[in-house]
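User: Could you walk me through two proteins back to back? I'd like the raw sequence and the structure tokens for each, with a short line separating them so I can tell where one ends and the next begins.

Assistant: Of course. Protein one, sequence then structure:
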Amino acid sequence: MITMHDPVTTPDTPDSPVTASAHPLAGLGWTDGRAAAFAPLAAAGLLPGRIVRMDRGSCEVLLVDPDDGEPAVRRAATRPVMTADTAHNPCTGDWVAYDPAARPAPALAAVLPRTTAIVRKGAHKRSEGQVLAANVDTVLIAVSLAAEPDPGRIERLLALAWESGAEPLIVLTKSDLVHDGDFVRADVEAIAPGVTVLTVSAETGEGMDALRARATGSCALIGQSGTGKSTLTNALAGTAAMTVQQVRSVDEKGRHTTTVRELVPVPGGGAVIDTPGLRGVGLFGGEGIEQAFADITAVAADCRYADCSHRTEPRCAVRAALADGTLPERRWESYLKLQRENDWIAARTDARLRAERARHRKHLTKAARSRPKP
């Protein structure tokens, strides 16, 4: 197994076999930086590729067939690069080193450093992260206009998107089913400072040109089931790549048609990653919260004290904004809720790391005592 950490700074050479400018996967994000990082691996006979789909124990990798030089999808075992840290295991969107000579079957030999990663708290009780997609430029947050949008959920998804390092973009889908889409968009824009909000309909084509113009490079679609993520994926890809179903007429909820995260190339360059509907969105990090609530951060900057707790301190700008209504109480409570969750995750993560270090020290001590004395 080869472990990749920081990018290798080996410069490209004209005869490099993975120079980005001539690489058939350049449209999917293969860059000069990645080519330089991959140079030592190419010298070892490994092939660069991008994961398009993850399955249990294996994945599908889009790479260039060395025989004909054309893009092809090949299956690879993932066991050689799996670790105990779920946040660092391979996922859809990762750039990887594919070993065609591995036995008993081709396998991944390394995962290249990520530029961005959408990481949420795992569904289990342990304080571990689950990567939804990697190396994306834009996170498309799908919100259906067929049901009343939930401001708290949108804020949570925005924090998740900002935390990834990619640019969030809110897509209000199914505009053909409502007549007040512009009013809803104004409400959403009020809770998404600095974020573009588009109103689209994949059925009629309304707003799709604007979405295509903004959804360049690699994008990932996140949101609840039934928001039309798979339909948008098909519209952006220009093909029926993803299966779609109608939402339940009783409650306008989806049926979890998409069960795996899958990367679909987009004509003209770029890709979109469709993801399963998110029932729960646990955050795994706090930087995204400050960006999602940039308006509150700006207000807090006017407090008299830099460490103001916004409770009893004099000349607190936050309490003043709450009192005069410029800062809605609902938004403030949403901010505090996400901050509490982040503090809990941070404490659990620190406790887990301390426990792992303690187990490691115990193992070393036990091994030292078991050595025969000279």
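----
Protein two, same layout:
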Amino acid sequence: MAPFEVRPALARRLRKLREEQWPDVGITQAQLAHALGGAKPLSISLISAWENTEKPVIPPVKRLNAYATLFATRRSVAGGVVRILPQEELMDDEQLRRKELLEELLLLREDHAGGSQRGTVDTWRFPDDEHVTIVCARLPEQLRKNLTYADPESADYVSLYTYADPDALIELYGHIRSVNPQNQVRFLTTEELTADDYTTHLVLLGGVDWNTVTRDLFGRVDFPVQQVGRNDDAEHGGFRVEQDGEVRLFGPQLDAQGRLLEDVAHFCRRLSPFNRLRTVTVCNGMYGRGTLGAVRALTDVRFRDRNQAYLQERFGGEESFSIISRVPVVSGRSLTPDWTLPGNRLHEWPEKATVGRS
């Protein structure tokens, strides 16, 4: 059987929204077709096809955005007229409801389209038209002063040479752009951020030693993982957690000559303390190869599906979660961590997560 014949959950949900969200209103398919189409009403047969559990048709993402906006507020049916309010007119609670509903519909759409259950969801996919800002540390001045390409006065100046973690940045920026074609995605150093940038979806690369926004975030929020800088309590630093009633420090492994054998990576996501309708994601390591490992866990084509599936099963409906993992370093190169292997996972939070969404 074709995939759409065995995955009718999205069709059922769309019909249920129309018929049961406000049962006293009784929204018809014709009214919904007019509301979703705006100046060019959709056909009633198309709405029917989206709701048909026998042979459902997959709605475009932009139509699911419209569904989420419409059913986020009862004001959409005020006065007996079904219409979609401009998104900027939604109140905070309505914006939150819209976000939750859109996430649900997109998850159902992924499964509907024939993906491998939850493994097809992409943590790096954001709702359309919501800006994303990747924040990097600026390479410290003492490391830039002898680099001709990092000198703005040089004819050979290249701004990317002033960024810390450029390999992680290039890997992540390309992936986020590819899965969010409708979004503005930018990357900036901490010194280039404006007040408005803080209220977008933030993705922070690098740790507390150089990235001041990462440092500020962990100083503002109550989080069970704290990063110990390389010049603080431990020679090479690490991530401090309380586990089984004991305080533990997960740090990198170096040989006697100071060569990095294994870094430690921290991947975490939470609601933003600067805008509760946006998120903050941190990809962090004690060294650059740990940061790259945190990024590649969900971008490397060989590992991202299985790691994404693990996140969905383990953390499903959690708004805030984190995972600390090993990042082996071989011949100076970091290897992508496989989160499905228990030995690679050093710490996970919450300890008891909810069951993944269906």
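The chain has two domains: 3-115, 132-349.

Let me know if you want the two compared in more detail.
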